[in-house]
Specification:
The protein has 426 residues and is an alpha/beta fold. The protein has helices at residues 10-19, 54-69, 73-76, 84-96, 109-120, 138-150, 155-158, 173-183, 205-214, 234-237, 309-325, 327-346, 377-385, 409-425, and strands at residues 29-30, 41-42, 51-52, 103-106, 129-133, 159-162, 187-193, 218-222, 241-245, 258-262, 353-355, 368-372, 388-389, 391-393, 397-400. The longest helix is centred in the C-terminal third of the chain and has 20 residues, at 327-346. The chain binds pyridoxal-5'-phosphate (PLP).
């Protein structure tokens, strides 16, 4: 009986894969191979998701339509390019938990973050600060600092970076609440990564939004590590905006387009400024070209250019799979898969490895960040040579994300066995 098998064995992992109703989706992805022909243990879907096998044919369709139709493809392609972004909207809205009119696939993540800050960071008098996490992703920090300077202000005075307590790596919710309580009247924008890229900590967006709104701040989230990783419920969180990329958990390919969410309460609000372009113009009259700008009454008002179809096609191919599997089902497996990883890693001993990601599944997605005591990069090089693709953060953290769409319990077991072996050699 399965229950008699010890958990730290290949037999146990394989038995879990056999019971896993999502295991069959692994075969719908290209898994990178080692020189010996064996698949890598790929645990880096938090950095670049793998390629769905369906992407190639979908891309070829667009190349063919362009080849055969030229400009006519805007109307006569199998999937006409004119409304192409709309084909993605409903599935994307389901992934991030929003109304379709609140979600659009456009640009890339940092670009969208800037566009959203143009709208939602409006420093006025004493209310001129932005609150972020001290270990926010570098690009977000650069974006925020440059926005502050763009308004003629000084990041040294206007940027509040919330640090974890001494000796801790994750932020405490009560510390987020107290900084907002204390300084909220001076904060124009609260911006958090909804899942921190480094620690894997997932924040309660609804709570942070309520605290920020109670003090009159705008609240936005960078969901780069949340979208496709766990259900986000963006609409119900009440936040003003969110942005994300689609190449991490959403498997849409390197440098793929990003996504943006604007809460519907802002659609016809003349006090919210916006950078504009022709793709944000109301569709019915967009091609009259001489009219004054008449915004689409949805998040699409924030679109600037006609979108790159060859990139959007990969987002769509991936979203079809998310629709088929369902983000709730992925979450269910993720809790179990990451829990299995956690159990095996912990069995290596707290004096050897320490997981900095919260132990509470509600406060994390799939990723675990593993701090290795007295490690250097040799250890990481060793597990790479042994077939693991993961991510190393100086000085001593390995980030691994078993992604429920294509990772197996067997992957998790192999990672554990390879890490254990490398630690012995250390
Ligand atoms: C991955 C990631 C980025 C990358 O930004 P791009 O504009 O897509 O290059 C930015 N912020 C966060 C939080 C990320 O995780």
């Amino acid at each position: 009986m399965v229950t008699d098998i010890k958990k730290n064995t290949l037999a146990y992992a394989r038995a879990q894969d056999e019971k896993d109703v999502l295991h069959k989706y692994r075969n719908q992805f290209h898994i990178p191979k080692q020189v010996n022909g064996e698949p890598f243990v790929y645990l880096c879907g938090n950095s670049l998701g793998l390629q769905p096998k369906s992407t190639k044919a979908a891309l070829q369709q667009e190349l063919l339509d362009w080849q055969n139709l030229g400009v006519e493809g805007h109307f006569h392609a199998k999937n006409p390019w004119m409304p192409y972004h709309e084909f993605l909207t409903e599935a994307m809205a389901r992934v991030v938990g929003a109304k379709p009119q609140e979600v659009v696939v456009m640009n890339t993540l940092t670009v969208n973050l800037h566009l959203m800050m143009v709208s939602f960071y409006q420093p006025k008098g004493k209310r001129n600060k932005i609150l972020i996490e001290a270990d926010a992703f570098p690009s977000d920090k650069y974006a925020v600092e440059s926005q502050i300077r763009f308004h003629g202000l000084d990041p040294k005075e206007c940027l509040i970076e919330l640090k974890a307590r001494k000796g801790e790596t994750c932020l405490r919710m009560e510390d987020i609440q107290s900084v907002i309580d204390r300084e909220g009247e001076q904060i124009a924008l609260v911006l958090f990564g909804n899942t921190n890229y480094y620690t894997g900590q997932f924040f309660d967006m609804k709570a942070i939004t309520e605290w920020g709104h109670a003090k009159g701040c705008k609240v936005g989230f960078d969901c780069a590590h949340g979208a496709g990783n766990l259900p986000l419920n963006l609409h119900d969180s009440g936040c003003d905006f969110a942005v994300w990329c689609n190449y991490k958990y959403l498997n849409a390919g390197p440098g793929s387009l990003g996504g943006a969410f604007v809460n519907e309460r802002h659609f016809n609000d003349p006090t919210i400024p916006r950078l504009e372009g022709w793709w944000g113009h109301d569709k019915a009259t967009r091609f009259k070209m001489r009219d004054a700008f008449d915004p689409t009454p949805t998040v699409e008002a924030w679109q600037l250019s006609n979108p790159p179809i060859l990139s959007m096609v990969a987002v769509w191919a991936s979203l079809k799979m998310f629709d088929e599997v369902g983000i709730e089902n992925l979450r269910k497996k993720a809790i179990s898969l990451t829990g299995y990883l956690e159990e095996l890693v912990k069995s290596l001993g707290e004096e050897v490895v320490h997981i900095i990601t919260p132990a509470d599944p509600k406060q994390r997605g799939t990723q675990l960040s593993i701090q290795v005591k007295n490690a250097n990069k040799n250890l990481f090089n060793q597990i790479t040579a042994d077939g693991v693709i993961a991510d190393w953060r100086e000085p001593d953290v390995i980030r691994v994300a078993p992604v429920p769409m294509y990772n197996s319990y067997e992957d998790v077991y192999h990672f554990y066995a390879i890490l254990k072996n490398a630690l012995k050699k250390k």
